[in-house]
Write a structure and sequence with these properties.
The complex is a heterodimer of chains A (84) and B (551). Chain A is built from 4 helices and no strands. Chain A has helices spanning 2-13, 38-52, 61-66, 70-80. The relative contact order of chain A is 0.20. Chain B folds into 2 domains: 3-213, Spore Coat Polysaccharide Biosynthesis Protein SpsA, Chain A (Alpha-Beta Complex), CATH 3.90.550.10; 252-540, Glycerol-3-phosphate (1)-acyltransferase (3-Layer(aba) Sandwich), CATH 3.40.1130. Classes of the chains: A mainly alpha (84), B alpha/beta (551).
């Protein structure tokens, strides 16, 4: 799931010069870590909802927690995804 | 129905006893509000309260708050005491208490309505005040765009307390002489019916009136401007929109009945008398706005300055006269807007340039984004939507009244496939919803030249020779949805509507490292095209707020 998450990040954000291995699953996504911003968060949320049917609400404070790191995001998706 | 009377009193106690006696004799409990009267008057008030106890409840303001403040206190107190209706009557005896039963009977028959006295003046009324009253009628008619309210200044009325206290809770109203008018207009907007009962009004020789001719007339004029713009904000968000959205929380709450009547009235005047009559009605209002609204006037002048410097060949001096013409152009566009909404515009009235750009995409079943600006009369596009059965337009606005307005349009004209959609912050939910619509072949219409208050995401780009903040939202959306973006500008040239189509992006693409630059370039490209179209119709760009205010 962590690898899947990394690939989703790379694809949805068009991170052309980053490979899955370059991403530390525990590093913060925003600012110092991957350096993502709120537009990236929007793109990721759209991709997640499209692919897994999970809903991240823009205003929810939990959302911040889910976006903490790749691992947090993977955990969130595996517990909330709609079973195919 | 459980009625009481509310009487504001400030110093003029000479006739208070007579008024109280008449009400108590009719078994009507009274909430008396002493609005900070001086010591002697206060003593006298205490005496009357003691005499009529327990029928009279006294509430006292330590400091004078003005008639509106006193009435508001009284209405709240009446609601707190469990009354359902409050009869407001002046303490100076100018209202005829013999009419009280007629007022109450009318309220009983129409418990949801506001019952207002329609004064029949006797010879005692001062002339100056009568003229002021007629001026006010005109304004109230304009503000409510209806003739429902025959007299808004009469302080003899019955309030339905439920709707009134709800209004007081969500609005801050003028506390002085402007109160009587404002609360009535706002109740009308909130959908409360106004019913009139004719009543004799006397200006008692011994009585003291607290109407100060100059100060109160100025106050009332300001109030009318406030109300007038309150009404404009409730029109489609295109013309005068999101800038004010901080202030009127009342959009969402306001009823649409008044506006619907107003639109119908306007159309009716247009049909009966023609466009000149509508202009005659509207232009004085706009001229007044031009005279009194400094911010808007200065914004207009700044725009004229910039466009005349950037396009000297236009010969458009940044003068007050041209600024005034700019304002009138807005009025004219407003009329077109209403006519368009009512279905009064067909393809015969419109010249379309490069229409195939959009029809080709539509024919392929794809959807996309129409990028536009606050230039001219975008509603002219509706003529195309009506004609093309495949086309569904979703107009994105930042204003909260979008949905109410939607219902309004569908009442005025046949249901159309033009929808207004209110979007605030562009979150994942909204983005996905929009994405789904485009996937179904629908189109999103979004203006690229106004920054929503709720989302400060902007980028500074050159516009008419100086950097100005433009929203990134439309460009971001183009990239996120990966759909074609077509620029559409609708301006009036030589009395005819012209619609210009241009391909803008198909689609916008970026990588993570180029994203911000791609969006900036897109916003810059938009500003350049906007500039070009502004130069074609320089008085039709309607953003009356300080536009070149970079971060």
């Amino acid at each position: 799931m962590i690898l899947e998450m990394k690939q989703l990040l790379i694809e949805s954000l068009n991170l052309e010069d980053i490979a899955a291995d370059d991403i530390d699953p525990d590093a913060p996504l925003f600012r110092e870590g991957l350096g993502l911003d709120s537009i990236d968060a929007l793109e990721i949320a759209m991709a997640l909802q499209k692919k897994y049917g999970v809903v991240l609400e823009a205003s929810s404070s939990d959302t911040r927690q889910h976006f903490r790191s790749v691992r947090a995001l993977a955990d969130f998706v595996s517990t909330h995804r709609k079973q195919p | 129905m459980k009625p009481c009377a509310v009487i504001p009193v400030f110093n003029h106690v000479e006739r208070l006893g007579v008024v109280l006696e008449a009400l108590v004799a009719r078994a009507l409990p009274v909430v008396l509000v002493d609005d900070g009267s001086h010591v002697d008057a206060a003593k006298e008030i205490d005496g009357w309260v003691a005499q009529f106890a327990p029928s009279v409840t006294l509430v006292r303001h330590v400091e004078n708050q003005g008639k509106g403040g006193a009435v508001m206190t009284g209405l709240r107190e009446a609601a707190r005491l469990g009354f359902t209706h409050a009869l407001q009557i002046d303490a100076d005896g100018q209202h005829d208490s013999a009419d009280v039963p007629r007022f109450l009977a009318e309220a009983e028959a129409h418990p949801e309505a506001l019952i207002s006295g329609k004064p029949v003046f006797d010879a005692s009324v001062p002339k100056g005040r009568l003229i002021g009253r007629y001026a006010t009628h005109f304004w109230v008619w304009v503000n409510t765009l209806s003739f429902d309210i025959a007299d808004s200044m009469c302080g003899f009325r019955v309030y339905p307390l439920g709707a009134t206290v709800a209004l007081l809770d969500r609005e801050s109203l003028g506390r002085r002489m402007d109160f009587d008018i404002e609360i009535m207009v706002r109740l009308h907007w909130a959908g409360v019916e106004v019913r009139h009962v004719p009543t004799q009004v006397t200006y008692p020789q011994g009585g003291v009136s607290h109407f100060q001719p100059l100060k109160d007339n100025v106050r009332i004029s300001l109030l009318h401007m406030r109300l007038f713009f309150g009404m404009l904000w409730r029109w489609p968000g295109w013309l005068i929109g999101s800038r004010r959205s901080k202030q009127p929380t009342h959009w969402a709450a306001m009823g649409e009945r008044g506006t619907l009547l107003g639109l119908k009235a306007l159309l009716w005047v247009h049909r009966l008398l023609g466009r000149w009559a509508v202009q005659a009605l509207l232009y004085p209002v706009i001229f007044y706005f031009f005279l009194t609204s400094k911010t808007a006037r200065e914004a207009s002048l700044e725009y004229l300055q910039r466009i005349s410097a950037a396009y000297p060949q236009l010969g458009l001096k940044p003068s007050y006269a041209n600024s005034c013409r700019h304002f009138f152009a807005m009025g004219s566009a407003m009329i077109d807007k209403v006519l368009t909404m009512a279905g009064g515009i067909t393809l015969q009235d419109v010249d379309v340039h490069q229409r195939h750009l959009m029809t080709d995409v539509i024919a392929s079943g794809k959807g996309g984004i129409v990028l536009t600006a606050h230039l001219g009369n975008l509603e002219a596009m509706q003529a195309l939507a009506d004609q093309n059965p495949k086309l569904t337009l979703n107009i994105l606005t930042y204003t909260q009244h979008a949905e109410n307005f939607q219902r309004l349009i569908s009442e005025v004209k046949r249901p159309s496939k033009v929808r207004l959609m209110q979007v605030g912050e562009l979150g994942p939910d909204t983005a996905l919803e929009l994405s789904a619509r485009v996937a179904r072949g629908e189109w999103l219409v979004i203006a690229g030249d106004r920054v929503p208050v709720s989302s400060p995401r902007t980028v500074d780009v050159d516009f008419l020779g100086k950097r100005a903040p433009f929203p990134i939202g439309p460009h971001l959306l183009g990239g996120l949805l990966g759909c074609p973006v077509i620029l559409v500008m609708c301006v009036k040239l030589n009395g005819r509507h012209n619609i210009f189509y241009e391909s803008f992006a198909d689609p916008l693409r970026w990588t993570r490292s180029t994203r911000d630059e791609v969006i900036r370039q897109s916003a810059q490209a938009f500003a350049q095209r906007l500039e070009y179209h502004c130069a074609q119709a320089p008085l039709q760009w309607f953003n009356f707020y300080p536009f070149w205010r970079t971060s």
